[in-house]
Design a protein that fits this description.
CATH superfamily: Hotdog Thioesterase
Largest sheet: 7 strands, antiparallel
Helix content: 10-25%
Number of domains: 1
Number of strands: 7
CATH architecture: Roll
Order of helices and strands: HEEHEEEEEH
Number of helices: 3
């Protein structure tokens, strides 16, 4: 019987499939993509509603899953850093609410990209979802070695344009 290396026995086995937490959607045009998140107890404040700062991780999750859906275009020595975020709060989500967070690219500039987000509570009837919060986030493309703004790579720009049908 072949003996396994003791280190190899401790390594978890990973399935090579990409597990995507988001999905394409036509429920809320102009959004074409969304991800689900469940409100955890630690997301809530003393009033029992989602603490306002906890919406940022929900928006980050949706944006990350959006990129995963696009195939995580290789960017070489560049990546994106958050430049600005504006958020409007419309209603208070509570513990165990299911949120569907929609995301889309609104604009791609020379060195930046602006995303729109909208978080809805998925109501039990499936018909009357409630808008919880909206946000715009602008990220700047930076060279990782210099931490300076650089143009958004063409491959990234093209992949988004394909998905969003003509965003420029």
């Amino acid at each position: 019987m072949a003996q396994l290396d003791p280190v190899a026995r401790r390594r978890p086995r990973y399935d090579r499939r990409v597990i995507e937490l988001g999905h394409e959607s036509d429920r809320r045009p102009p959004f074409r993509y969304a991800a689900y998140a469940r409100v955890g107890f630690s997301d809530t404040d003393a009033q029992g509603v989602v603490y306002y700062g906890r919406y940022m991780p929900y928006f980050d999750l949706a944006r990350t899953e959006y990129h995963r859906h696009l195939g995580r275009v290789h960017l070489g020595g560049v990546d994106f850093a958050m430049r600005a975020t504006t958020v409007e709060y419309h209603a208070g989500a509570r513990f165990d609410d299911l949120l569907e967070i929609f995301v889309r690219v609104e604009r791609i500039g020379t060195t930046s990209i602006t995303y729109d987000h909208a978080a809805y509570r998925v109501d039990d009837d499936g018909e009357s979802d409630t808008l919880m919060a909206t946000a715009k986030g602008t990220l700047v493309c930076i060279a990782l070695d210099e931490r300076k703004a650089v143009p958004v790579p063409d491959a990234f720009r093209e992949r988004i344009a394909q998905f969003e049908e003509g965003v420029a």
